[in-house]
Queue: 4 jobs
Job 1
Amino acid sequence: MDMLHAYQILETAANDMTKRTQFSADDPVVFPTVSGDKTHVEAELLPVTDVSHDGEQPIAARVQEGQSNGYWVNWFKRDDEITIPYVAERKGTYTVTMDCFSDAQASKPNHFTVTGDKIEETSADVSSTDINGADVTVTFDITITEAGAGTITLKAGEANGPSIDKFVITPKTFEGPYRID
């Protein structure tokens, strides 16, 4: 195959790609299977569940300049949920790095719990040192107890949750059979 033909095949493939619009059980987040790999997840592509808050803005993806894909999920209020449909080929612990915005102070941080299928429950607090709020990065671990498909739910607590831009998932430790890639 000559270079021009290879380029044409690559260009055709690139032009035929469609941009992902949402993660779902049929098209889930795929956790990395090899140490050092990362899975990037834009928050606005995840399903959200809004709980009525007496006329307050509903949780939703909104345009926000400066965010990684031009959007973030905000108005993540008490009891609202963000769902991560996932597949993890390997059980173990994964580190989640979340880029977000918080205007909560350390004395009363934003808070959310992390629950779901085949995971150990955990939670995270998010706060800013800037009284007007700031972009912050928060890291927490998710332990997958059984390989396969599942759902992870982030649920905002009494102090609400932050506005979320994206998640980056990296393997921390694996259990069971090891792959050499």
Job 2
Amino acid sequence: MSAKGLDRREITVAAVSAAALHALVAAGAIVAGIKGTYAWHDQVDYHLPTINTMAGQLPAPVLSDYQSATAPGYHLLMALLARAGAGERALHLVNVSIGAGFVALFAALAARFMGGWAGLLAGATLALSPYTVNPSVFLATDNFANALIVGAFLCALPIASGGARLPVRSAAAESFLAKL
């Protein structure tokens, strides 16, 4: 279930390179103080207030009525970090890491099927997409959910090739987490 003659090193190089590119672009946008995008408005109007509200409600946050049109997994993760003392800058660094992780998983998946250079190209394309950069720069749920979905696909690859039981459990857990 992989490109012929492809080794783990090629997959790793594609994933790490694409993730690093994404992290640099997103960090640069954060340092530049870019505002006014759709994701910035979502952060200000919905995500940051929801994170702060849930952080204040922990250990029993109200999940039945909160100001976001998404599942609560991302907000709970960020609320836990905020409750543990992480400031907004730290939350943004975690968010960039989530985006970079999504890009790395996608590049690894692409490299697994098409080869290292194609995986790097696919990963770099995603790394530079405004639909991936914006949710990394601003607190938004998109990259978290997408990372879980791509992670589920990666976990499912051994299943498709008749692999061990652990990947089956991992894929099931990833599929469940993607719904959060």
Job 3
Amino acid sequence: MIILLALMLGGAAMYLWVKELTGSVVAALAAALVFDFVPARLVELYGGHPAGIAFFLFPLACYFFDRAVRTGSWRMGLLGGITSFSLSVQYGYFFYYLLMFFLLYVPWRLVPKMIEINSKERGAEEYKNLAVAAGCYIVGIAGGIWWMLDFKKRFVSSTGFGGGRSMDEVSLFSPPLDAL
């Protein structure tokens, strides 16, 4: 049931993001289908990785970013920040990938928006709205970075989970090599 829910959420999140980017229902449906059945995504889900269900947060964070940029809505920025923070809590590697993706994606989306704003009379107000939306989003990103660097270092590493697993523990949850 959780796998089906994760697939539905992943498809819905990708649909929303691509629909926001292109305005095309056909492109959004195609992207949702492809995203739902990408082999790397399925390995996370079917392999028993609990974080596989969090994969939908990646396109959802991108959707909220694009909505915040387009509308200047602080609510969309806040939802994007919460989504990004949730991704860092659920599965840090996906959060790292989101940050690396945003290094190129954010300027690619913001530069045209700034050019558009500069060509309008009410540019100052739009810049203010965009700054507030970005601030809300950045708080969530900063919270995710804090979670990854400080909180986990202090609390998780001092528990039994912080030392890693022995090969005997790994073998309890993995098929033997000859079964592959």
Job 4
Amino acid sequence: MNKEIILVFGGESTGTRIVTECIIKTGYEGSSKHQQPLDDENVKYSEKMVYRRSFPHSSEWPDTDAIYERFSKLGYNIRVVITTRDWYCMWRSNERNERKHINEKNRIEVFNETYNRIFSFVNKYDLKYMVMSYEALVYYKHEYLRLMFEMFDLKNTDLSELNLMDGNSKWYRPDVPIKGEIC
């Protein structure tokens, strides 16, 4: 059996956690939590692993070259799932979570840098990847996951118990105040 790792990369508040949980349900080992078991150098590796990383992570840009080198040297086939979300909702979610490293003035620059870094990484190493939309996930739910996983050769798994709720609609309500300027 070939060793495989799926890297789940995306901007903060784009669904990296829920996508990672879904991949774990297909038989991959990993965690959707902030601290990743694979961050521990003494971790026990398995044949199928998933590694989640938001961009930025803990106020820093992940070292994607180091991530690639580590898993490549261990003989893993590396694939990437890139999560996306409506940027207005990302903005508002970051604002609500008071992410200190993303202030009102540089949020769009951070979003641009996030995806520049992720796609540069994928292109540099010519990795197989797919983009998963938060909106499609919450609106089409399990059918979307089934189709996306089928396209990425992941085991079809019953994910009906997952609570896939719409986290965007609250940001479009007129009674939710905006802090600062958006444009």
